[in-house]
Write a structure and sequence with these properties.
two-stranded antiparallel sheet; alpha+beta; 164 residues; 6 helices; two-stranded parallel sheet
Length: 164
């Protein structure tokens, strides 16, 4: 180890060396059928993009319900969905001024149990296909890999139905 490397190593140990502040990441957004859990729409974005901005792209014309976590909260989309006759099952957010009531917590729990059907898809991608740690090769290359994995996961989840 050279002297310069040793000094930098010691500075980093003491917390004096500036750490890089840039981070890369990506999010996978899916639109799935509630009963079967099979995916019909996939979107891959950078990690700094808001979840709610992709919600209209994940919906189809024949969808009768929308389920999502707190990242998909948007009152204008909620009103539009209710006007169109679509059930809005997006989890409710709490704030410091307005904490969730017990009824709101029960609603969130119920919606989470429905959403867990779709979350099973991500478990299959991570555990069956080993997609836990991802090397960032660019959004387009990583998206192509995600699209392939989602297609394989659909086949994996529908294997019993296809055999009968």
């Amino acid at each position: 180890m050279t002297r310069e490397c040793h000094v930098r190593f010691c500075e980093r140990l003491r917390g004096k060396f500036p750490r890089p502040t840039y981070h890369f990441g990506m999010k996978v957004h899916v639109g799935a059928h509630v009963n079967s859990g099979l995916v019909h729409t996939v979107a891959v974005t950078a990690a700094n993009e808001a979840d709610v901005s992709l919600l209209p792209n994940l919906l189809r014309e024949d969808d009768r319900a929308v389920f999502g976590d707190k990242g998909y909260v948007d009152n204008s989309l909620k009103r539009a969905a209710r006007k169109a006759g679509v059930f809005w099952g997006v989890a409710l957010k709490s704030t410091t001024k307005h904490p969730l009531t017990e009824a709101n917590k029960r609603f969130n729990h119920k919606m989470s149990s429905v959403r867990s059907r779709v979350e099973h898809l991500f478990r299959v991608i991570k555990r069956q296909f080993g997609y836990t740690k991802v090397r960032y090769k660019g959004l387009a290359k990583n998206a192509a890999q995600v699209f392939t994995l989602v297609g394989l996961t659909n086949l994996y989840l529908a294997r019993r139905a296809m055999l009968t």
